[in-house]
C-alpha cells in the first residue's frame, strides 16, 4: 500500500461524508423543530408552489364564507323589516274592509282613512331606516349588489331588493268602466253599428304580454276578460288578478206600461258574451207591465237558466246586477191594427237606454250595459284593448298600467274602499314575494357557506399532506443521520491516525 503524509484521502473522504450527513441532520432537525417538511423552496420547489396555491385558496374560501355571511345578515335584516311592513298591510286591509261597509257614516270613514294614512307613514319609516353597514336595504337603492363568495375572480352572485317605500308599493291597475249603448234596432244591428261592443274573431286583447282571441264573435264582456286573466297560468304566476262587476240602474223611474189590446211586447235578455238571447219575456195585448211583475219574471227565468242575473228595485228604478257579465235587452213590439197604443222608453229597463223609445212605429230597440273591469298586478305591464276600448270606457286603447300606490289609498266611499282592498291585497302579495326571494337568497348563501367551509377543510388537508412533516418518518431519518454523524466522527478519528504509520518506517 502507498503511504503519504501530504494528502490523507481517507480523512478527506470521511470529512465530505460528514458534511453531507451534517446537512441532512440539520434538515431533519429543522423539520422536526418547525413541523414543516417544506421550510424553503430548496426543500421542494414544486411542492412549495402547490402548497402555497392551496393555502391561498383555503384563505380565500374562508373570506368568501365571511362575505356570504354578511349577505345573509343583510337579507335577514331586510326580511325582518318586510315582516313588520306585512303586519301593517294586514291591519290596513282590515280597516279598508271595515270602511267598505255602508253602515259607516262619513266621519267613521274619515277616521279609518286617517288610521290607514298613519300606517302608510309607518311603512315609509321602516323602509327608509332599514340598513346594513350604512347601506339602505328597502328604499330601492339596494340593486345588483355583488357578493363575492368564491376563491377566484368573478365567482360572484348579485342581490337586488325592490323598494318598499309607500310611493313604490301598490298595484298597477287598469280600470275599465263599463259603458252603455242603445240603438233603434235588433241586437245584431246594434253590434254592427257599434263595433266596440262586439269582440270579433279578428280582434285581440293583450294583457301583460298574453293574448286573448275569441273563437267566435261575442259581445264585449268584462267577466270574460277577468276570467281569462285569472285562469291564465302565465298571468297567475306574475301575480295578476282581475275582478268584474256590473250594476245597471235604469235611467228613468218606473212607469207602468200598458200593452195595446192588439199588440204584444217581447223582451229578449242577454247575459254574458253570447250573441243569442238567454231568455225572453212576452207581454200579450191588454196586459200591464209593472215593476214588481217584471222583477219576478226576470229572477225566475234567470234562476231557471242558471244565470248570474239579479233584478231588484231601488228608488222605484229597475236594477240589474251580475258578476261582471254584460246585460243587454232587445225589445220589440208586434203591432196590431191600432196605432200608437203601446209605447215605452228603454231607459226604464236598463242604464243608457233612455234615447230609445219602442212603440208601434219604432218596433225594435236594443240597449247594452257592459260591466266594470279591474286588472291588477304587482309589477308594471302593458295592455292593448284595441277594438273594445270604448265599451269598457278606457281613455286609451293601449298603454301601460298606472301604479296605485299606498299614498293614493282612499276609503271614504264604498267603491274606493273596495279598490283599496284590492290594491292592498296585491301589495301584500308583492311583499310576500320579496320576503320569499330574500329567504331563497339566505338559503343559497348558507349553502355557499357550508360548501366553502367544507372545501376549505379539504384544501387545508391537501396542503398539509404536501407542506407538513411526517414526524415518525422524519424522526427515523434524524436518528439515522445522527448515527451516521457519530460513526463518521469515529472514522474520521481513525483516518487521522493513518499518516502516523509513516513514522514506523522512519525509525
UniProtKB/TrEMBL annotation:
UniProt keyword annotation of Secreted present: yes
Gene3D superfamilies in the cross-refs: 3.30.70.2120, f41 fragment of flagellin, N-terminal domain
GO molecular function, one term: structural molecule activity
Taxonomic superkingdom: Bacteria
Residue ranges of every copy of the Flagellin C-terminal domain listed in the record: 421-506
Purpose of the protein: Flagellin is the subunit protein which polymerizes to form the filaments of bacterial flagella.
Protein name listed in UniProt: Flagellin
